[in-house]
Amino acid sequence: MKSALTLSVAGLLASSAAGQISFTPLATVDLSVTANPANAEFIGSSPSAVAWDGADLYVGGYNGGQVQNTAIVKVTNALGSATIGPAFGIVPNTMNQRGYSGLDISPAGLAAAHDFGAATAEGITLFDTTTLAPIWMKNTRGSSGVGFDPGTPGGGPTGRGVGYPNFGSGRRLMQDTVTGADVWTTANGMLLDATQGTLWRDIDFDDTTGDVYLRQANNLVKMQRTGDNATGTATYLFDPVDRPFTNGTNVAYLDRSFQDYVVFNDRDDPNTGQQATDVIKFVTPSGAAATATWGGFAFPTSNAYYDFSWDAASGTLAILDFENRQVYLFEESFGIGMNYCAAVANSTGQAAVMSASGSLNVADNQVSLSTESLPANSFCFYIVSQTQGFVMNPGGSVGNLCVAGQVGRYVGPGQVKNSGPGGAITLGIDLTAIPSPTGFVSAVPGQSWNFQTWYRDSVMGQPVSNFSDGIQLNF
Q1: Which of 115, 308, 315, 385 has the smallest set of CB atoms within 10 Å of its CB?
Q2: CA 294 to CA 263: how far, in whole Å?
Q3: Which CATH number fits domain 336-474: 3.30.1490, 2.60.40, 3.30.230, 3.90.70?
Q4: Residues 264-323: tens digit of each pLDDT
């Protein structure tokens, strides 16, 4: 019995090993002006696709009502005084539930996929990002997104181009980036795994390996690249109950300096009122789930339709919100520390998650602690110890205590926090004044310190307390 308990505790302490990615909100771009057909910026009843280059946004539109035009707008200076330009790439008389299914950007231009319900001249288009005029157009049905295919390392020119899947085809098609000529077609394009159907919704590529990431209905599929026009094993990184006719499922590959991630939206339920933090998900290329924190940003509820665009050069992510007609811009925060210990879900249905940012150099004395997925307007404070532990339901709490030994509490002036409507808190800590039961102590290089959040909650109208997971900082 003792050994079984030891194994259980060890598993709980290691439960957050899948990874964490942290973001800081930079800006929100309101696209309301693009909804009025009388405006020059009109793109359709809703925004449906986004591309982001670190400075400017491109947003494509969708028609969810009567037959009307769909188009694209360029948003300049998106991180400052954002300016939405007039519509371009206008497709007249777009049918209901049709429009731009995907955008991608590179130095070559802006690639756009447009779904008219059948093949049209505007199916796949490459636009000049300065003049916004078409460089070339491919007559096809742009039903399923588009991306710049990098080919494989050391591969030839026939592996690189503007790649896209199509409904009803189990292949990746490709156009020459410069001329728009066919490189690979439905007759000979790279095979994709079609065992669960060919209702492709979006596509992106790993620029280093050429691996392909696709949304097939609500699934997330990885095709390992073996050649310029060849793939090997298919891996379903996310394979829920099938929703073949649910649109608005998208994907972006985040190529980063150390651990890459794939971001996607789980649109199992297309109804409104959903929390973005339940819908927007991250996995590693091997499929390990990762936790995201958003720097206290409070997403509005939505119908779970999001699109994503990652700019590797600036480390920034654009998230398009279809229902709320907004684009949210975030910068990756290179967090410090390692999460440990399983937290118990609170009244939000989620477990509170900690993150830390700043420097592990004690002399810098720059460390901030953050906690997200807390109940709204909750009374909270941080606790700290050099010793990790695990105690279930201490003092009647519904959570798990993950520190032991000499435990200090951050309850000084300004240190007790309220999570506010967004359910998040942040505290900058002084490494020369870490609280302990016997007074304040200083962190010393070579030491490890462990932090956790204690907070108030309510279950079935009864007041309770709970804890976040823990985070270990090695100075």
Answers
A1: 315
A2: 14
A3: 2.60.40
A4: 999 999 999 999 999 999 998 999 888 888 888 999 999 999 999 999 999 999 999 999
